[in-house]
Every structure is written in structure tokens, then in C-alpha cells.
């Protein structure tokens, strides 16, 4: 049995190299020089007596054993971070560092209401934010890169804990005066499958919108090309089709200075659930419940903007 135990720093370097696939980018993410990171990984390989990374001029390729050790390293680093969190959580809640991923269809609309509240009420909290698509955010959470994720459900999260904050109703947005006298509610059967514009794959709002409509033909025919909600708005404003928007985007003023009208979707499940998600048995669970209350309060009683009326 080897007497050598890898250091957390060496495991961090190895995990960063796997994530970025490039020595320079991995070093930047660890805030060290490329030579320091490379030397740390070489020392790790030398002392355990195996090759973890095959190096060429163009490609960084992990060996099969290297991949297995990276998987274990993720768990070790996550456990080490949680050891530090236990002590931190025993003090005043929501202080120190907190890393949160937020999906793109929430971040620009809810965070402007949340962040001033946190700065005023929790000045000792250092909140680090990452905007990521849903699956990338879940992967970041599982790998210990973030502490929690603000996202929309339903979505398969596996062995993670969550708290639903509120429901975010869905609206159908279309060019103003087309139709001339739109009804107060839009039923799924009223949507032209040839004109529906949705976000590209990777954004869970696309799946939530299609599930709410419950029309297989709509799922097959929908044009999915938008990289963001703001891109879709520009398309609709130019008469290229219609799209689906969450209520929080309307509250955030996404339709201001456009010729677009929005009406609520009428269906059995015309909303998405906004939730905070974290790792099961996290020592900061009580803090996440407290943060959930703050998030819920920040989202309460918004006024729908004029274009949605």
C-alpha cells in the first residue's frame, strides 16, 4: 500500500484539466501558472506510479485510469468543501461565500430584484453567480463547483434536494394587431405550429412550453432557433412567428419598446416551477431554505408590464 496521499490541490488541478481539456485554461481556472499546474499533475503521476494524462502538442487525453481518478477526485473535493461548510454553517447563516448557478431564463429577470435585497439584508454574504443551461448547472452542482442552483422544474435532478419557490405562468407572445382582436387567453390549439419559435436544445423552457401545450404535432413542427429569450423577442417583433414567455420575463420588461402583445396560455399545466436545488445532506441546508424564503419574497407581487395587457 502506498504511503503517498494526493493533495487536494493536485486533485483540483487534475479535475480542472479534465473539465477544460487545456493546460492554460485549467491553470487560469485555478489561478496558477500553467507550469505550476502541469508540475502538480506530473508529481501526482510520479508518486502514485501511473500515467493519468497523455500529452501531445494538440490534444490532452486522459487514460482510462485517469478518468476513474477524476471521478473519485470530484467526490473528495466536494467532501472537503463540505467539511469547511460545516464550520461555516454553524455560525451566522448566509455569511461568507455562496456559489449559485442560475439558468438563463431566470437570471436577467429575477436577480435584479434579488441582489439589492441580499446586499442590504446580508452584507456579509459573498454571492458568486454562474449563468448556465440547466444540465450544465446540475453537473456543476454534482461536481462541487457550485453550492446550489436556481432553476425551473420539472427536470430530472436525480439525488438532489430542492424547494419550490413559486409558479411562473407561461404566456404566448405575438406581433401586436396580429390577430387584431386577440382573446384574453390563448389555447394550445390556437398556436400555428409553423410559426412557433422556441429556444434551442439545452434550455428547459422549451420542454416546459411544449409540455404545457401537450400537442405532439407542435413538438415535431416547432422551429427551435433562439439562443436566448431576447433573441426570440427580436424575431417575433420582426414578424417571423410567435413564442412562449415566462411571466417573470414580462415582469422584467422584456416587451418594452417592442410591438409585441402577450396573452396567458390556457392549459392544464401552463406554468413552470421555479426552485432552488442543492446536494442532498448538504451542511448548508438550513441556509438554502432561508435563501428560498428571500427568493420567494423577491418575486412576490410583481406587476405585469403594459404590453402583456
UniProtKB/TrEMBL annotation:
Swiss-Prot/TrEMBL keywords: DNA-binding, Transcription, Transcription regulation
Pfam families: HTH_1, LysR_substrate
Top-rank lineage group of the source organism: Bacteria
Record-linked InterPro entries: LysR_HTH_N, LysR_subst-bd, WH-like_DNA-bd_sf, WH_DNA-bd_sf
SUPFAM superfamilies according to UniProt: Periplasmic binding protein-like II, Winged helix' DNA-binding domain
A cellular component term, taken from the record's GO annotations: protein-DNA complex
Entry annotated with the keyword Oxidoreductase: no
HTH lysR-type domain residues: 6-63
Gene Ontology MF terms in the entry: DNA binding; DNA-binding transcription factor activity
Family: Belongs to the LysR transcriptional regulatory family.
Name under which the protein is recorded: LysR family hydrogen peroxide-inducible transcriptional activator
Taxonomic source organism: Sphingobium scionense
Amino acid at each position: 500500500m502506498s504511503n503517498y496521499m494526493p493533495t487536494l490541490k493536485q486533485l483540483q488541478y487534475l479535475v480542472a484539466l479534465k473539465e477544460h481539456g487545456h493546460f492554460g485554461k485549467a491553470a487560469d481556472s485555478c489561478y496558477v501558472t500553467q507550469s505550476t499546474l502541469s508540475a502538480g499533475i506530473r508529481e501526482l503521476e510520479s508518486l502514485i506510479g501511473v500515467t493519468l494524462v497523455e500529452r501531445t502538442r494538440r490534444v490532452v487525453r486522459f487514460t482510462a485510469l485517469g478518468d476513474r481518478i477524476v471521478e473519485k477526485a470530484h467526490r473528495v473535493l466536494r467532501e472537503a468543501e463540505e467539511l469547511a461548510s460545516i464550520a461555516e454553517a454553524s455560525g451566522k447563516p448566509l455569511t461568507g461565500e455562496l456559489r449559485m448557478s442560475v439558468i438563463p431564463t431566470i437570471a436577467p429577470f429575477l436577480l435584479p430584484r434579488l441582489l439589492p435585497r441580499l446586499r442590504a439584508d446580508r452584507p456579509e454574504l459573498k454571492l458568486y453567480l454562474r449563468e448556465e443551461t440547466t444540465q450544465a448547472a446540475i453537473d456543476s452542482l454534482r461536481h462541487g463547483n457550485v453550492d446550489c442552483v436556481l432553476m425551473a422544474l420539472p427536470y430530472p435532478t436525480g439525488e438532489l434536494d430542492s424547494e419550490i419557490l413559486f409558479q411562473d405562468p407561461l404566456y404566448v407572445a405575438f406581433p401586436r394587431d396580429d390577430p387584431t382582436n386577440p382573446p384574453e387567453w390563448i389555447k394550445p390549439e390556437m398556436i400555428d405550429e409553423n410559426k412557433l419559435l422556441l429556444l434551442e436544445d439545452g434550455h428547459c423552457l422549451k420542454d416546459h412550453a411544449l409540455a404545457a401545450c401537450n400537442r405532439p404535432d407542435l413538438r415535431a413542427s416547432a422551429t427551435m432557433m433562439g439562443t436566448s429569450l431576447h433573441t426570440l423577442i427580436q424575431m417575433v417583433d420582426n414578424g417571423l412567428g410567435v413564442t412562449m414567455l415566462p411571466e417573470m420575463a414580462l415582469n422584467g420588461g422584456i416587451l418594452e419598446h417592442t410591438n409585441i402583445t402577450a396573452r396567458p396560455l390556457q392549459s392544464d399545466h401552463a406554468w413552470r416551477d421555479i426552485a432552488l436545488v442543492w446536494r442532498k445532506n448538504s451542511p448548508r441546508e438550513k441556509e438554502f431554505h432561508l435563501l428560498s424564503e428571500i427568493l420567494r419574497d423577491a418575486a412576490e407581487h410583481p406587476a405585469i408590464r403594459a404590453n402583456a395587457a
